[in-house]
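Technical annex, item 7. During the second reporting period the consortium partners agreed on a shared format for inverse folding records so that results from different sites could be compared directly. Each record opens with the tokenized structure and is followed by the designed sequence. A conforming record, contributed by the partner at site C, is shown below for reference.
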């Protein structure tokens, strides 16, 4: 029953290590025990700050280039992308799917059997997100719902719906806000298939305000929108024929369908990550390093990516001090 009401089914229902389901149970049903953090100026402020710091130190950033192969040389590595690069030390901060692709053309990776076993210790997990954008935050105004912020879970195919504070740091301004707002529906595993089938039926949902979707986004189908609005009403305790405003804009995206990689990763059955994974994944060859959410103690979270980058930067080749006092390096040796 729990697996149907904590938002994510995959880690419980798929062939996944039991520890993963346990981790989600600790994170989700009792948010008092989990410390969720947001960045005041939005998530983009993190890469912006990192990028500014790299440039300030004389570094440069090359975007939109795919690394196609990496080859060991006497002095370090040659990296083939749109251009050819050389480097004495390399960190590959990429997930499982592109890592396997890169290994096909990079013997320095593919010839290391324990590394490839570690790469394959995780399962790719698909995630689906539907964005519903409204002119008014109606779920907050309606006395019967009065919902401002946070996840709402159901065992309907709807899975989970998140509402967001408009002014997280100012509860009074937030309480009075009734302007444009979004609901985000989040599903995984077989629930994602339910919405995939809905998305496959009928024409796109467009409104007078948005006769076309913004570039880079995909509209939901009208069939999907009608069904999701019906289930949202049930989740919010309304009758399914109660009137609620329809969205003016919708978006649909599956992380797992090309061109995107997978949403997140989970350890397969019987994997002992401390023993089987971290000692083998972190450095497949001298001065070549790997860090990513895929092989981390907090898969599915940015925290997992940060923990493992912190861990790699503490290796002898870089020798930086641990960023966090309870650094992961204190519990695992590579
Ligand atoms: C729908 C969704 C919602 C999420 N919500 C949350 C949340 O609320 N909170 C949270 O903490 N986490 C959330 N996550 C998880 C979080 O986004 C990831 O854990 C995090 O982005 C992983 O970071 P990473 O740097 O390890 O890997 P990635 O973000 O996957 O970065 C890898 C980068 O490498 C690039 N790359 C891949 N192959 C190559 C190549 N060959 N050459 C060059 N570049 C390459 C990719 O383009 C990508 O930019 C969510 C994830 C999804 C999909």
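Designed sequence (site C submission):
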């Amino acid at each position: 029953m729990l697996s149907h009401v904590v938002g994510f089914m995959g880690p419980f229902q798929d062939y996944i290590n039991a520890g993963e389901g346990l981790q989600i149970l600790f994170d989700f049903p009792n948010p008092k025990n989990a410390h969720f953090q947001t960045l005041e100026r939005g998530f983009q402020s993190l890469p912006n700050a990192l990028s500014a710091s790299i440039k300030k130190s004389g570094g440069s950033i090359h975007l939109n280039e795919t690394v196609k192969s990496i080859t060991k040389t006497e002095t370090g590595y040659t990296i083939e992308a749109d251009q050819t690069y050389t480097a004495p030390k390399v960190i590959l901060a990429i997930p499982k799917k592109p890592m396997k692709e890169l290994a096909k053309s990079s013997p320095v990776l593919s010839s290391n059997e324990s590394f490839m076993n570690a790469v394959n210790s995780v399962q790719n997990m698909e995630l689906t997100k539907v964005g519903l954008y409204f002119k008014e935050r109606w779920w907050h105004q309606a006395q019967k719902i009065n919902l401002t912020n946070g996840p709402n879970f159901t065992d309907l195919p709807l899975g989970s719906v998140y509402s967001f504070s408009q002014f997280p740091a100012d509860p009074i301004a937030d309480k009075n806000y009734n302007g444009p707002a979004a609901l985000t529906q989040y599903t995984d595993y077989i629930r994602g298939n339910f919405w995939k089938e809905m998305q496959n039926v009928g024409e796109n949902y467009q409104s007078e305000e948005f006769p076309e979707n913004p570039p880079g986004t995909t509209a939901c189908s009208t069939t999907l929108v009608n069904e999701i609005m019906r289930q949202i009403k049930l989740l919010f305790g309304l009758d399914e024929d109660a009137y609620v405003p329809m969205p003016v804009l919708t978006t649909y995206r599956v992380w797992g369908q090309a061109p995107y990689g997978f949403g997140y990763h989970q350890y397969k059955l019987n994997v002992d990550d401390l023993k089987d994974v971290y000692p083998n994944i972190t450095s497949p060859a001298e001065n070549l390093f790997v860090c990513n959410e895929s092989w981390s103690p907090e898969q599915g979270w940015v925290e997992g990516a940060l923990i493992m980058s912190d861990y790699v930067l503490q290796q002898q080749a870089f020798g930086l001090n641990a960023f966090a006092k309870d650094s992961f390096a204190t519990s695992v040796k590579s």
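The two ends are 39 Å apart (CA to CA). Residues 66-67, 93-95, 98, 102, 127, 129, 255, 263-264, 292-293, 300-305 surround flavin-adenine dinucleotide (CB under 6 Å). All partners now use this format for quarterly exchanges.
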